[in-house]
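Q&A log
Question type: sequence-to-structure
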Amino acid sequence: GPHTQEVYEEKQLRIGRNALFTFVNQRVEDCNLTKLLKGADVIFHLAAATKSDSKWPYLPEVIKTNVHVTKTLLHACVPPARFIYASTVEVYGDRVGLITERTPTNPSSSYGVTKLASEEIVKNEARKKGLDYIILRLPTVYGPWQRDDMTYQQILVGKEQMTEDRSTLDVLYIDDVIEGLLLAAKTKAVGEVFHLTTGKENLWYKGKSYLLNNKTLTKPLHKVSLCPKKAKTQLGFEAKMSLSEGLEKQREHVTKWQERKDLL
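Response status: OK
Response body:
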């Protein structure tokens, strides 16, 4: 729709202003990747289908898209390039207690299944090609430009019917995620899987309560949290943004954006 186009242009403007940046407006499958990736030091693979991939009927199609794109990218990489793959904590499925990177994977969403399949491809193809790789498992990400189908964004734009995020294990502010990606680009700890997390319990629920001004916190049935230790010791990663400050930044962004839309 027209708004999507606006958002697109606005993002491009912001990125273009702040970086030595070339935007290639093509699907990964249609790019001349060999040419594009020539001389690249680090490849951050963040692309995935997100809208339809939480629905099981689409699974074969989504696996094909997500997994195929990952393979295509890896094939075009040449050592000593480093491949950084953004995966999801949904690969763990429904767990209780403390989750570490050693916790067995058991995804219960189709998105988790496709990401886990891609993780395996990254490991195997990177080993074959002698590429350094790092897999980062991310929780729900919040902050400015959060997708419209995400819970916090739905609350902030005043949607009547809310849906719950696929993963409520933890939330991480977008700037912290970027910090984690940049640390992964520099670390000596390659060939590893890390999850980026605040390490706090119930944080996603606390964020939801905060935005709804609820005094009573709706809690998950079981205690569950992600262990931040491995990323802290090997990557030097620590989440810095406080939940209330992060949510206020997201609120401010939504307000500004809505004002602009009203003007148009």
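Response note: The beta strands are 42-45, 82-88, 97-99, 132-138, 140-142, 171-173, 192-195, 224-226.
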